[in-house]
Amino acid sequence: MTSDNTAHDAPVLPGGPTAEDAPLPSDAVEPPPRRWGELVLALATTALGVYVLVAAGSITVPGSSNTLGPRAFPYLVGGMLVAAGVVLVVLILSGRAGQEEGGEDVDPTVRTDWLTVVLLVVILVVHVFAINTVGWPFAAALLFGGAAVVLGARPWWRAALAGLVLGLVIQVVFGGLLGLSLPAGPLLEGVPFLRG
Amino acid sequence: MDNFSALIEGFATVLHPMYLLYALFGVFVGTAVGVLPGIGPAMTIALLLPLTYSLDPTAAIIVFAGIYYGGMYGGSTTSILLNTPGESASIVTAIEGNKMARAGRGAAALATAAIGSFVAGSIATVALTFLAPVVARWAVQLGEPDYFALMVVAFVTVGALLGSSVPRGLASLSLGLFLGLIGTDTLTGQQRFTFGVPNLADGIDVVVVAVGLFAVGEAVYVGSRMRHGPIRIIPVEKGWRTWMKCDDWRRSWKPWLRGAAIGFPVGTIPAGGADVATFLSYATERRLAGSRRKQFGKGAIEGVAGPEAANNAAASGVLVPLLTLGLPTTATAAIIIVAFQSYGIQPGPMLLQNESSLVWALIASLYVGNLMLVVLNLPLVGMWVKVLRIPRHYLYAGILLFGALGSYALNFAPVDVLLLVLIGLIGFFMRRYGYPVAPLVVGMILGPMAEDRLRRSLAISQGDLSYLVTSPFAATAYAAIVVLLAVGIWLKRRERAEEA
Questions:
Q1: Is residue A11 included in any domain, yes or no?
Q2: How many domains does chain A have?
Q3: Which residues of B328-350 are buried (b: 16+ CB within 10 A; e: fewer)?
Q4: CA nearest A116 in B: which residue?
Q5: Do residue A92 and residue A43 come from a single domain?
Q6: Which of B56, B210, B349, B455 is in the most buried spot, having the most CB atoms within 10 Å?
Q7: Residue A70 belongs to what domain range?
């Protein structure tokens, strides 16, 4: 259903295709594309700082504020953003890249799977718009089932079923018992114990 | 003793059967979520915030205390039993605990971690009981510039000292300060950086930012580079007889006490909280090991007992500046402040007077929760191991779902969830390029408070900037920043030398 590299649950053997792709010594130089993306982030930080500095000038200052008005702190923050951004741009251009974060479930040897990132974001956005149209439990089922399948759950219907059960259980516990007003949606309208 | 009777009253509240159940629920859920890999204590609390929305404040605070300690206990189980080479080396316990488990002594490692956490946590809670009222009494006398100085100290330590890269920490902190600026200025009522969007006039909710960064950002990041294949968990031998032998007790009790002695003070000063404490304890144990030093790196029980004890003691220590000054010194503490604020409670010097019964109920529930955890944790290890085996695709899908639920339940507005996705993407890119996320959360929460203090100070002094540094306390604080920076650089050098 989705990308091939997430589809197989087969264990990745050491010395398999992924290990060959990545250079074995861990302190090897980062591949150039990664540094490029990092540069964009550093430039974005600088740009945000410049924006803050410019926009701070247009904050209305009421006549009554005699000393430090509402503009001063934004100027400070904008300055810090620009300073940090510029230092980072210089650092990255001189070849000192950041140390990406590790984690128990992160495989340091594989490349970033952008398809997964995009699909997860799409599913989250669809979930947002589904809340008010089909009701929270079904939107939740969509989010959980969709994300699980994208992350490699097989078969897909088991993930979907798990999502549906989870959505309904949360609706009953949080909406019915704890009193959070989660919209049950048109399909379940009028079921008393689902009401928030 | 006035405080003593207040504490007894706190116990009376907590020992009420209903609240005991809440405490049990808190430690249970906290441990279960803390055991899950990839979920640290800050994310545990951020994710479980919505659970408490419908509780009364006392119950919510008791649940939180349980989650706070439970998350710590759960985390150590994960690092000892989960076999992920390389990555977990950043946590010192994982080095020794994991090696012990591989040598077939996992139960002993878990036991010394749990009992050490209990011993140190209890000592630190006693210290908190006595220290908090003293600090609060002293804090009442602090002026506006003093508070501003304290916040600058927190910014410097959290932003510059804790990450691996100073400019990245600073960028993260500044981004947090910027997010804190969005909304209506409290002193003049002017809108700032709202882009004309009415929803932004009240500012961005910190919960959305915290959940977005910690939960959504982490889930998307792990999803982008997921470790596939079977989950390798080191089996633990059955039966309580294998937990700790006489020799293990003999080797553990001193590191426990030393860990408590190191952890609590490090936790109370804004110097990085638990991470620094565990590292210091590990280095100390290694130095004091004598003939056993060769075992370090291969599974020395002292290297588990000390850091784990220090970790829990620091967790209690962090509560001192949090409760008495309203100063969060770690990301976890920042989230706890958010939890307090959602009940209209502002931590600070007046908290002990205004909300005395609540604070003492909190402290009493720390004692109770700690006891529950040491009783629960060891016999239930089999269950936690099952939790560790949860398929990763379901785990991260669940994290996304609960993150979305938490931000939706704030105002029941889908817009908040959209904002969550946006912040989550920022969190993804920050992780990918090595920006620490903790300074952002701390900056966002402390930023508005710091601006407030700064402007009030200058209003009092009528614009005279020297007023900011002339009070003895503020001057000391700024001097302390210099010292902290020097110590931080020295520590980082040591850490690097130790790793090499």
A1: no
A2: 2
A3: bbbbbbbbbbbbbebbebebbbe
A4: B224
A5: yes
A6: B210
A7: 31-100
- How much is the pLDDT for A32? 46
Interface contact B289, partner A, CB < 8 A:
no
**Hey, are the CB atoms on B393 and A151 less than 8 Å from each other?**
yes
Q: What is the tens place of the pLDDT at every residue in B254-290?
A: 999 999 999 999 888 876 667 778 888 888 888 888 7
**How many domains would you assign to chain B?**
1
Of A58, A73, A100, which residue sits at a domain end?
A100
C-alpha B364/C-alpha B10 separation (Å) is 6
Which residues neighbour B182 within 8 Å (Cβ) at sequence distance 6 or greater? B192, B193, B194, B200, B203, B204
Check if A57 contacts B (Cβ < 8 Å). no
With cut-offs at 50, 70 and 90, classify the pLDDT of residue B333. Answer: confident
Assign residue B344 a region (left: φ > 0; alpha: ψ between -120 and 50; beta: otherwise). left
Would you call A105 and B392 a contact, using CB atoms and an 8 Å cutoff?
yes
Contact assessment for residue A154 and residue B383, using Cβ atoms and an 8 Å cutoff: no
| Boundaries of domain holding B320 | 2-499
Contact A154, A7 (CB under 8 A): yes
Residue pair B116/B255 in contact (Cβ under 8 Å)? The answer is: yes
Contact residues, A window 104-133, toward B, CB-based 8 Å cutoff: 104-108, 110-114, 116-117, 120-121, 124-125, 127-129, 131-132
Burial of A5 (0-12, 13-18, 19+ CB in 10 A): middle
Peptide bond into A155 cis (omega under 30): yes
Residue A149 lies in a domain: yes
Q: Inform me whether the pLDDT recorded for A156 exceeds 80.
A: yes
- Cβ-Cβ contacts under 8 Å for B423 (sequence gap 6 or more): B208, B209, B212, B213, B216, B217
Q: How far is B130 from chain A (nearest CA, A)?
A: 36
Compute the distance between CA of residue A95 and CA of residue A25 in angstroms, rounded to an integer: 18
> Do A12 and B393 lie within an 8 Å CB cutoff?
no
ipTM exceeds 0.90, yes or no: no
A90 and A160 fall within a common domain: no
